[in-house]
Amino acid sequence: MDHPEIVSHIRDKFPGDRVSLDPHAYPDELRMHASPESFKGVCLELHKILSSPVMMLFALDERAKLNKFVINCVFADMKKSRWIIVSMDTPPDKACFDSLSKDIYSASLFEREIKEMFGIEPTGNPDPRRLNLHDEVWPQGNYPLRKDFVKMQDGPRGDYRFNRVEGSGVFEVPVGPVHAGIIGPGHFRFSVAGEPIINLETRFGFTHRGAEKLFEGRPYPEAVRISECISGDSAFAHSLAFINAAEKIVGVSVPAKAAYTRGILLELERMYNHVNDIGGIAIDVGFSFPAAYASIIKEAILQLNEKLTGSRYLKNVNLVGGVSIDIDETGKRALLESLGKIKRDIEELARMLEASVSFMDRVDTTGALRRKTAEDIGVVGLAARASGIPMDLRKYFPGIYKDAKFNMITQASGDVLARLRVRISESGESCRLIEEFARDLKEGEEINVVPELREGCAIGYTEGWRGPVLYWLKTDAGGSIERCKIVDPSFHNWQGLSYAVLGNIIPDFPVCNKSFDLSYSGNDL
Amino acid sequence: MRHILKNRILKGVVTRHIEPELSNEVEAAGLELLTAIRKRFGRSLHVREVDTGSCGACESEIISANNPIYDLQRFGINFVASPRHADALLVTGPVSKNMLIALKKTYDAMPEPKFVITFGDCALDGGIFKNSYYVEGVIKDILPVALHIPGCPPNPAIMIKSLLAFLKEQ
Questions:
Q1: Which CATH number fits domain A3-123: 3.30.460.80, 3.20.20.150, 3.30.365.10, 3.90.1150.10?
Q2: What is the share, in percent, of chain A residues with pLDDT greater than 70?
Q3: Per-residue pLDDT tens for A435-478?
Q4: Residue A155 clears pLDDT 90, i.e. is over it
Q5: What chain A residue is nearest to B134 in terms of C-alpha separation?
Q6: Rounded-to-integer distance, Cα A380 and Cα A389, Å
Q7: What is the CATH T-level fold of the domain A211-524, as seen in this structure?
Q8: What is the ipTM of this complex?
Q9: Across residues A78-88, what is the average pLDDT?
Q10: Do B134 and A210 touch (CB under 8 A)?
Q11: Chain B residue closest to A206 (CA)?
């Protein structure tokens, strides 16, 4: 459905003053305000028309100025390169909204988050449990994202109940939060009957650091540094998504050279992580030589990052208005030279894996996530593409990717092998894109402009290596941040993993997990 | 198999394949570290890592220190899967409230004698997450910390050099 059609369709369905449009939105945003009674209806209608999961659902505390809470729900209109934002107000004394989660699975975790952080009730949500604020350590009645929250007050504590699979011969295997490897903390509870997994329940929040609250009241330069520490392996994607929102608000258009530099660095980040995961999948089935080989390639990319930017993880590069580093002719030569070697090594790595029958046998059909399941639970990014869902912000919100003729990679089977193949192909595509972008880097062009601060709110987004990284930002006139909502693709995709492992055996869990390679800290915030 | 053999031969030994200057530094510090570890621990130093809320960059660097290029293991440092096997606890992250119990339990599960190393700026005092409502922050107040390795994240070379300087002092 076309854009004006969507608007008139919604208007027809919800006549009168039940839905109003915000005329001041940016070209890539469409903002609607719905009355509390029609909020749920509008969201369900958009979900149906756009077949988009709930990409973001979050609350704002506007009690001080406007005496209300605001709920925002964001959908992606991929075909029209637009984000559709539905908002509604709710009074502070009886703060609630109609839950979407019985109709849209992807809304469920967001609603639980709103409830624990703001104390706003998602009426009708079947799962009242908290996500990140664990009952064991955080008393009830403390809502940290409310503006008037100062310090934790002691009070009664609840308890957390895991779902139970009952029946004779069903065993529970609890794993974590501290795992055997050098990896983040999370709790996995498997229910098994014999060998196959019949249920996996995840409990996260162990790396919750209250990141969203830390943004509040900070100016841009400080806030960018926090965004780089949301998920360390996506430091650049996160800072880029943050910057994207900020640049929309201040209305600055970045110099071409800065845009290409960002493109190069984003693709380098994708490559080192993809290579790391290809190696990780190999090591998790005990195939150590390719794993070691992959770690050599990863180190080469990290060293290239350091040579170009002074940081192995691409921190301290992004600024509102541009980038802080200039890739000159020498840098460009070094980049292209290293890239050639890296490309050959990745091809060799893929060849080694594909030539091993026992390896291919292990990953083929393991951890399959069917397209229908992935769509129903709202899986995004790389995992979605491996299950056959064409979804990549680089294609649908192209920017500099348009001239580079970006080629989106999808697979159909949704198993470990499909995710592996998407990674291998995307690494090759990234090499090509970097070469394209490097060609457009011109010596001596400016790399940043100084922004004028303004008040406003906007969505920032970028396709990180896991999938879409989204930031919703609201600032005051002095450029300090009033609210920052972050959604890492891991938040959507951990649910996908819980379904992908069903019917597999526990010894295959590590390889299934690695094939998704989701972030703990990006999920927990 | 053919591809593996081919690449094995073509790649050769990669352990010194970094900038020559850095390579010499790492090599010299590493060999000294090996001697220091032999002297202090008899054979090798076993380390258990715990993430208390880091962003994952510190973990990535610790894993990098174990890749064939730095290959920490040849200097006598092993990363182990259980705290029961560990001499040292390597802590990353600013200590989220949710990880406090797990951190203490991991430390308690280690046999004596044992010591704690904090890794990365967050682990020193909460770093960028200092003053957050959900961060306990200073690990020194929770566990006896013997060594801090600074950086955001510290790179493998800094890790090797810090460990060496620390063991030399003892």
A1: 3.30.460.80
A2: 99
A3: 999 988 887 777 888 888 888 999 999 999 999 999 999 998 88
A4: no
A5: A209
A6: 8
A7: Cytochrome-c3 Hydrogenase; chain B (1.10.645)
A8: 0.90
A9: 90
A10: yes
A11: B98
CB contact under 8 A, B153 and A313: yes
Q: Span A484-494, mean pLDDT?
A: 94
**How far A447 CA lies from chain B's nearest CA (Å)?**
25
**Residue B11 forms contact with A (CB below 8 Å):** yes
Q: For CA atoms B29, B35, B39, B42, give the dihedral sign.
A: positive
* Residues A474 and A43 sit within 8 Å (Cβ to Cβ): no
Query: Domain limits of chain A?
Result: 3-123, 211-524
The answer to pTM > 0.90 is yes
Residue carrying the six token digits 């890296």 = A342
Among B7, B54, B94, beta carbon nearest to A352: B7
Q: Which of A136, A204, A206, A209 is the best substitution to test chain B (most B C-beta atoms within 10 A)?
A: A209
B133, closest residue in chain A (CA to CA) = A210
Q: Are B31 and B166 in contact (CB under 8 A)?
A: no
Chain A residues lying within 8 Å of B102, measured CB to CB:
177-178, 185, 206
| A352 in reach of chain B (CB within 8 A) | yes
- B3 interaction partners in chain A (CB closer than 8 Å): 348, 351-352, 355
Q: What is the mean pLDDT of chain A?
A: 90
Q: Does A288 touch chain B (CB under 8 A)?
A: no
**Residue A456, Cα to own-chain centre: how many angstroms?**
23
**A1 falls in which pLDDT band (50, 70, 90)?**
low
A297-355 pLDDT tens trace: 999 999 999 999 999 999 999 989 889 988 888 889 999 999 999 999 999 999 999 99
Architecture of domain B2-169: 3-Layer(aba) Sandwich (3.40)
The full DSSP string for A345-389 is HHHHHHHHHHT-HHHHHHHTTTT---HHHHHHHT--HHHHHHTT-
Kindly write down the DSSP assignment for every residue of A90-158, as one continuous string: E-GGG-EEE--TTT-GGGHHHHHHHHHHH--EEET-S----SSS-TTTS-TT--TTSTT--SPPP----
- Asked if A149's CB is within 8 angstroms of B64's CB, the reply is no
Residue A275 sits at the chain B interface (C-beta within 8 Å): no
